[in-house]
Amino acid sequence: MLKMKKLNKPHEIQRPYKLSHQVLCITSINFQRQSLIGFVELTLIPTRNDVRWIRINCKQSRVYRVRINDQVEAPYQYNDPTLEICQGDAKQRNLDNFSACHSAAVASVSPVLGNGELTITIPPEASHMVQEGKLLRVSVEYSLERPQGGIHFVVPDSEGSLAERGAHMFTYGYENSSRLWFPCIDSYADPCTWKMEFTVDSTMIAVSCGDLVETVYTSDMRKKTFHYHLTTPTSAPNIALAVGPFEVFVDPQMHEVTHFCLPHLLPLLKQCSNFLHEAFEFYEELLSSRYPYSCYKQVFVAEAYVPVDPYATMTILSVNLLHSKHIIDEAYMSRKLMARAVAEQFFGCFISMHTWADTWLPKGISAYLAGQYNKKAFGNNEYRYWIQQDMKKVIAYEQEFGGILLDPSHLESSPFHFPLDNLHTMSPRYTEMISTKAHLVIRMLEDRIGRELLLQVFNKLLSLASSAAQQKVTTNMWHNMLLSTSSFQKAIFIVTGKDIKIFLEQWVRQGGHSKFHGTFVFNRKRNTVELEIKQTETQATGIKCYVGPLTVTIQELDGTFEHHLQIEENSTKHDITCHSKSRRNKKKKIPLCTGEEVDMDLSAMDADSPVLWIRVDPDMLLLRQVIFEQPDYQWQYQLRYERDVTSQMEAIEALERFPTPATRLALTDTIENEHCFYRVRCAATFCLRKVANNMVSTWAGPPAMMTIFKKMFGSHSCPHIIRQNNFSNFQHYFLQKTIPVAMAGLRTIHGICPPEVMKFLLDLFKYNENSKNKFSDNYYRTALVEALGETVTPVVSVVAQTGQPITSDSLSADTKLILEEITRCLNLEKLLPCYKFTVTVGCLRAIRKLQKMGHLPNISALFRDYTQYGQFIDVRLAALEALVDYTTVDGNADDLNFLLDIIENDPVPRVRISLLRMLTDNPPFKRKDDSIFNTEELVERLWKLMNSGLSHDSCIRCAVVDLYYVLYGRARPSCLPVPDLAVVANPKDKKPKFNTPSSQGMADIFLPKMEHQPSASLGVELLAEAALNASEQLQTEVVLMEEEIMVEEEHSPTPLLAQPQDISSVPGFQTTSYTMSEPGKPGTAGVIPHGEASRSSAESGPVVVTAPPPVHPTDIKYSDDSQSKSLPGISGTSIHQPTGFDSSMFRKSDSQSPDIPQGIPPRLGMNPSTSFVQPSADGEDLSSSKLHKDKKKKKKNKKHKHKHKHKHDKLLDKERFYSSGGSTNQSPATFSGGSPQHEII
Fold first, then answer.
1. What are the φ and ψ backbone dihedral angles of 539, each rounded to 5 degrees?
2. Helix, strand, coil percentages in the chain from 3-state DSSP, rounded to 5
3. Is residue 473 domain-shared with residue 613, that is, in the same domain?
4. Which of 44, 76, 558, 1024 has a C-alpha 20 to 30 A away from that of 676?
5. Which of 461-470, 481-490, 590-599, 624-633 has the lowest mean pLDDT?
6. 420 lies in some domain
7. What is the percent of the chain with per-residue pLDDT over 70, rounded to a whole number?
8. Sign of the torsion formed by the C-alpha atoms of 1041, 1046, 1052 and 1058
9. 665-672: Cβ within 8 A, 24+ apart
10. Residue 253: how many CA atoms within 13 Å on its side-chain side?
11. Spatial distance between the Cα atoms of 821 and 428, rounded to a whole number of angstroms
12. Residue limits of the Transcription initiation factor TFIID subunit 2 Ig-like domain (predicted)?
C-alpha cells in the first residue's frame, strides 16, 4: 500500500498581493530572426503592507527594464533552476536522485507556491505605495530571440514576401507554459482581465484571446496593431497568439465564431467547420448555460504541437485536420477533436483547475461532455466502443506501470519513476492516462448520482463562475472560477444531498482497478445459477481489491434479468434463481434486453438450462477487467443476438479460443449481418482469420471471407472482378478495407499465405477503379498495401541458410510480385500524391516487413531519406518507426545516433515527442541487457539531454526520462564505472548509499548557470489542398520549402561510438546542392493535394506536380506507371532481370550517402543550400574513456567550485539575493536598461 499523509495544500500558501489585470503588448515580430519585442504590465493589489518583493514567471526572455507605476526603476534577479536539474559534478546518474532534484527545481519556481524565475525587489522609494495599499503596476520590457519553446515560427524558404510564402507563428506550451513567451504569473489559479496589443506587418493578421476592439494602421500603412480585450478573468496559461497571412471565414450559422486558415485552404476550412454551431448548441442545451465567452476563434497552423490546443475564446489546431468532402476516415477524427475543444472552453478555460491535484476535474468533465456530443453525432454504439477502448488503455497502463492517482495531493512518495506533485515532472503518457481515466471516473459518478443531477452540478458550477466573472477582484469571488476536488464534492452535496467522500477516496485518491474472474454452474434441481466471482490478483501491479456492489445480467429464455451482487471478499459465491425454465422442444420467441423478440436455434445449448449467456458489469460502471468463463455456444449466442456492441466485442475476443465449425459459422454470419455495427463486423474478420488458421487442417472450401467479399463487392457477371468503387455506404466501405487485411493473415498448413489469397489481393490492385466514386480511395489503397505486407512470412531458402547476399533470383515468385506492386504504388504516389500520403506510409511499413522477414537486405538508407524535415509528418513518423525497429533488431551505433540527433535537433516538437514514444515502446535494449548500445556514452548523452538540454519543453524532458527508465530503470546504470565516492550506510534503510555532493533541497539548486541553446532556422512544408472542381479532376500543387540549417561547431552532438571514417567523406564546410530534374525520386513526398478523389491511373485527370528536390542516400530508381517498376534493395544475377528490380536494391548496409552527414538528420527544401559544419576538425573522439579520465584528473586539481549552494551559505546568499539591484551575473540573457530595438532589430 502507498503511504499517505495530509500535506499542506499548495494553494494555502498565499502571496502578499493579488493579480487583477495584465497588459500584454508585442510591439515587433521579426520572422527572419524569429524574434519579438514585448512589454507587459501586471496590476497587483497588495494584501499586506510588508511586501518586499514580487515574483513572476519568465523563461527565455531578455529582460531590459522593470518599473513600478511608471515611476520607479525596480531591481530584479533572474533564476531558473530548471536549466540544469542536477547541478554539481555528481555522477550518480540514477532516476531517484533526478526525480528529487526535478521536483525541487520545479517547485522553486512554481507559481502555485508563490515562486517564479524573476524576483523583483520593491525599492525603498516605492515602499510607501505598498503601505498605503495602492495598486502596483509592474511593467517589464523584454525580448525573445530564437526561442527554443513556447513559440513556433514557420518561415518557408522560397521567393516572395512573408505573406506570399505563408510564413506564420503561433504560441504553444505543455500545460502552464505561457512564461516561455511573456512574463506573467503562470498559474491556473490566478485569473485576471486582459488587454492585449499586437503590432504586425500590414499583410498579417494577429489572432488572440478576447474581443477584437480595433485595428489601427501606422501612418505609413506598413504596420497595424490589433487590440484585444478579455474582460472575463482568465489565467495566463489560457492566453495564446497566432500571427500569419490567414484567410478569415465567419461561421454563417453562428457569427460569434470565426475560423482562420493558411492561404489556399479556405474551401477545406468551410467543409470541416460546417458542423461547429451544432456542438455549441448541444453543449448549451445540455448544460442549460450559455457559452461563457462572447466569441470563439479557430486557427489552423502548420507544424502544430498537438492536433488541438484550446485557449480562452480560441483554439489552435493542426492544419492536418482539414480535409475535403471526399475524405471519409479523417472526418470522424476532425469532428471529435473540434467538439472536444469547444467542451474545454467551458471546463478547462472558463473554469480551470485550482492546483495540480485537481487537473483531473476539468479534463474529465470536458471529456464527458465531448462524449455526450459524440454519442449524439455518431451514435450510442460508437460511444460505448470508445468507452470500452479507453478502459482497456487504462487497464493496460496500470498493469504495466502501476495505479493512476487522479488526486496525488495526499501521497507521501511517488510510486513511479517520476514525481507526481507537478504536471511538469510527470510522464506525458501518464498525463494522457489521467485524462482518460478521469473521464471514466466521471461516468462512474454519473451512475452514482444520476445523469440529470450531475448536469445540474455542472450548471451550478458554471452559474457561480459566471456570476463571479462579473465581479471585481476585490470581492474575492474569483475563486468560484477555480475547480478543486473539495469544491466539486461540496457542489455535489449542495445539489444532490449525496456525499461522495468514499467514492473519491476509492477511485480518485487511490490508483488501480479491479480484476474479476467469473465462473458459474447451473443447478438443475434448484434452477439456480451458482456464480463465483474471484479477485485472485489483488497484489499484482495496478490491481486492487474491490468491495461494493456489482451488476450481473443473465440472458434467459424468458428475457434479460439484472442482479445486483455485493462483493465483500476476494472470493464470493452467489446463488441466483433463474426466472425461466428450460423449454425442451417448445418453440417461442426470446425477448432481448432491447425489448425485441427473436427466434433462436437452441439445439446447441444445454437442454436443462435456461441460461443463454451471462455478463458482469455490462455498462462498464467500474474500472475493472473481467475474465469470464462460459461454454462456446453461449459466447456464440452472445455474439449473434446481444445488441450491445461491447458485449459482442467481448464474445469475439472469447471465441478466438474456440476454433470450431460453429464458431466459424457464427463469425461468418456476423460479418454478413447488415444490422450489425461495422466495428463488430470488422473485428469478426480478424477473429475468423485466427479461427481459420487454427482449423487449417480441417478447413474445407475456399479461404475464409473470400466468398463474402466477392458476394458483397464482386461483379455480378464475373465475381472475381471487383466492381467499381462506391463508398456511399460507409459500413461497406470500412468492411471493404478490412477484409483484405484480415485475409492476408491466413496461412496454410505449411505456414505460408495461400496462393489463391495472394492472387485475390493482386487482383484487387489490378481491378481497382475509383474514377466514378465521389469519395477518395486513398485509405482503401493503403489497406491493400498493408494487406500485401501481411502476406509475407519468414523466408526459408538456401540463401538464408548459407548467408549469401539476397538477389532477385533468390526471391520467390510471390515475393517478386509483392515488391513490384509496392514499387508501383510508391511511384504512383510521386505522380498523384494522395491525402496525407497514406499510400507512402503503407509502402514504408510493408518494406520494413519484407526486411524483417528476410526478403530484403536490412538497410536503413531508404527510411532515413523519408525522415527528412520537409516530408509530410505522417511519412516522417512512419519512416522513424521503421528506423526504430531496424535499430532494435539490426542497427548499430550510427543508427541510434541518427535517431538521437533528431530528438535533439528536429525543428518540429511533435516529431521529437513521437520518436521518444517509439523508442520507449520499442527500445534498442532493455535494462541489464548485454547490448552494443548499452554504453557509458549513451548514458551521458541521455542524462545531459534531460538534465540540462530541455528546460524549454517539460513534455519532451519527461519523455526522455521515460526512455531512460526503460533502458536503465531507477538505479544507477550498470554500464557505468563505480564512482569515486564514499559509501555511507543508512541505518534506517539498512542499505549503503553513495554520499554524493548532489543537490540537497532548495538551496542547492537556487542559482543555476545559464546555458546558451543553439538555434536553427526552421523550414516548413506549406500544405495546400483545395476542393475538387466541377469535373472532379485531381489538380495538385506542391509547395515545399525550407531554410538553411547551420549546425554550430560547439553544439555538435557527441556520437555514441567513434566511427572510423575517411576525412574526405566527412561533409565539413561543404554546400550540397540539389536539382529538381527527377521528380520521381523519394524526396518528393510531402504535400496534401488540392481536393482528393484519387484515381487508380495517371490518365484520370490532368496533374500539375511541382516536386521538391530529391535526396540520394542510395541509387534509388523510380519510374512512372508505364515504365518498369523499381524498389531499392533488389539486384539481379542473370541477364534477364525480372521487371521491377534494380541492382541498387541489395546495397550493403554500411553504404551511406555522402549527402547526409552522420549524426545530423537530413533536411529537405525547395532550393536547398544546406551547409553542415564539421563537428570536430581534428577528429578527436570526445567520448573516449581516456579523455574522460583526463578531465577528472584536471577537476581534482581545481578549487572546489559547485553551481549549487551549500548549507553554510544559505543566510548570506539569501540576503545577497534579495538586496542586490539591477540584473545579476546569474543570467547572461538578462539586462538592466538598454534598448530592445537596438538588441533585436
1. -95, -5
2. 40, 20, 45
3. no
4. 558
5. 590-599
6. yes
7. 76
8. positive
9. 666/636, 666/639, 666/640, 667/639, 667/691, 668/704, 668/708, 669/640, 670/639, 670/640, 671/705, 671/708, 671/735, 671/739, 672/708
10. 10
11. 39
12. 512-631
Please check the confidence at residue 1229 and state whether its pLDDT lies above 60.
no
Query: Do 361 and 436 sit in the same domain of this protein?
Result: yes
Please say which residue of 622, 656, 671 terminates a domain: 622
**pLDDT at 867 exceeding the cut of 90:** yes
Judge whether residue 1092 has pLDDT over 60: no
**Residue in this structure with the C-alpha cell 509496392, named with its chain if needed:** 822
Mean of all residue pLDDT scores within the chain: 81
> How many distinct structural domains can be found in the chain?
2
Query: Which of the listed residues 622, 643, 666 is the one where a domain comes to its end?
Result: 622
In the numeric block, the cell 541505518 is attached to 987
- The CATH number assigned to the domain holding 377 equals 1.10.390.10
Are 598 and 455 members of one domain? no
The amino acid at 348: G
Q: Taking the CB of residue 101, how many other CB atoms lie within 10 A of it?
A: 27
- Residues for the chain: how many in total? 1241
| C-alpha to C-alpha distance for 998 and 799, rounded to whole angstroms | 56
Per-residue pLDDT at 1129:
40
pLDDT digits (tens, 9 = 90+) for 185-199: 999 999 999 999 999
Which helix (DSSP H) or strand (DSSP E) does residue 314 occupy? Answer: strand 314-318
At 1237 the pLDDT is 43
In Å, what is the CA distance from 363 to each residue of 348, 477, 918? 7, 23, 25
Amino acid at 42: L
Region 781-796 average pLDDT: 92
Spell out where 31-174 has E strands. Answer: 35-46, 53-56, 62-68, 72-73, 76-78, 118-121, 136-145, 151-154, 168-171
Residue 534 is assigned to a structural domain of this protein: yes
pLDDT at residue 1151 is higher than 60: no
pLDDT band at 336 (very low <50, low <70, confident <90, very high): very high
Provide the 8-state DSSP code for 537.
Answer: -
Please provide residue 568's backbone torsions phi and psi, each rounded to the nearest 5 degrees: -125, -15
Q: What CATH number is attached to the domain comprising 567?
A: 2.60.40
Is the domain of 530 the same as that of 581?
Answer: yes
Band (1124; pLDDT cuts 50, 70, 90): very low
Side-chain-side CA neighbours of residue 655 (13 Å): 34
Q: Is residue 427 part of a domain?
A: yes
Residue 348, all three cell numbers: 478547462
Measure Cα distances from 741 to 170, 738, 752, 757, 783 in Å.
Answer: 40, 5, 15, 11, 7
Residues 371, 471, single domain; the answer is yes
In the numeric block, which cell numbers belong to residue 568? Answer: 465483500
Identify the three-state secondary structure at position 896.
helix
Q: Indicate the SS3 state at residue 547.
A: coil
- Give the pLDDT band of residue 588 (cuts 50, 70, 90): confident
Which residue in 260, 261, 292, 258 sits closest to 277, CA to CA? 258
Domain match, 360 and 503 both: yes
C-alpha cell at 1064: 574526405
Name, in order, each residue with C-beta under 8 angstroms of 1046's C-beta and a sequence gap of 6 or more: 1016, 1017, 1171, 1173
Confidence of residue 1105 (pLDDT cuts 50, 70, 90): very low
Higher-confidence residue of 1130 and 23: namely 23
Q: Is residue 155 part of a domain?
A: no
Q: Does residue 214 or residue 1084 have the better pLDDT?
A: 214
Are the C-beta atoms of 994 and 979 separated by less than 8 Å? yes
CB crowding 233-261: b at 16 or more within 10 Å, else e:
bbbbbbbbbbbbbbbebebeebeebbbbb
In this structure, the answer to whether residues 489 and 362 fall within a common structural domain is yes
Bridge partners of 551, per DSSP, are: 564
3-state secondary structure of 706: helix
Query: Taking each helix axis from N to C terminus, what angle separates 276-287 and 451-469, rounded to the nearest 10 degrees?
Result: 100
For residue 579, what are the domain limits? Answer: 514-622
Instruction: List all residues 6 or more positions away from 159 whose beta carbon is below 8 Å from its beta carbon.
Output: 165
